[in-house]
Design brief:
The chain is mainly alpha-helical. The chain folds into 2 domains: about 80 residues, CBS-domain (Roll), CATH 3.10.580; about 45 residues. Helices cover about 45% and strands about 10% of the residues. The chain contains 4 helices and 3 strands. A 3-stranded mixed β-sheet has the order 1-2-3. The chain is globular, with a radius of gyration of 14 Å.
Length: about 120
């Protein structure tokens, strides 16, 4: 791995089982835990998958060896580079509010993960 963040970057064909392991390993490396970023070969964002997405998939009897692309969130909330933490919180909060979804815990976890990942990349 060239960068610690590569640990949480996964391909869409990685199995749910291996994704769970990568999410687990991330915390031990000081990276955001609970989330993996699905990217293509050029590291272009395709989606994200959280431990909650995995739990919901398993409850729905989606096989643990299925590719993660079956369960990933394909349109995650993103923000441009260079924003302050306050600006990130403001944008993400507004996008969640206008989407009609109230995901306070997930929102807090996602914002924390984004800020931690940004700090780790510096």
């Amino acid at each position: 791995m060239k960068n610690k963040l590569d640990l949480i970057m996964i391909s869409p064909d990685l199995s749910i089982r291996k994704t769970m392991q990568r999410i687990t390993d991330a915390g031990a490396e000081g990276l955001p835990s609970g989330i993996a970023v699905v990217v293509d070969d050029d590291k272009k964002l395709l989606g994200v998958v959280t431990d909650g997405d995995i739990r919901r998939a398993l409850v729905k009897d989606i096989g643990i060896d299925s590719p993660v692309e079956k369960i990933m969130v394909r349109e995650p909330i993103t923000v441009p580079k260079g924003l302050s933490e306050f600006e990130i919180v403001k944008i993400v909060t507004e996008r969640v509010r206008t989407s009609g979804h109230f995901l306070k815990f997930t929102l807090t976890k996602t914002i924390s993960a984004a800020i931690a990942a940004r700090s780790a990349a510096r």
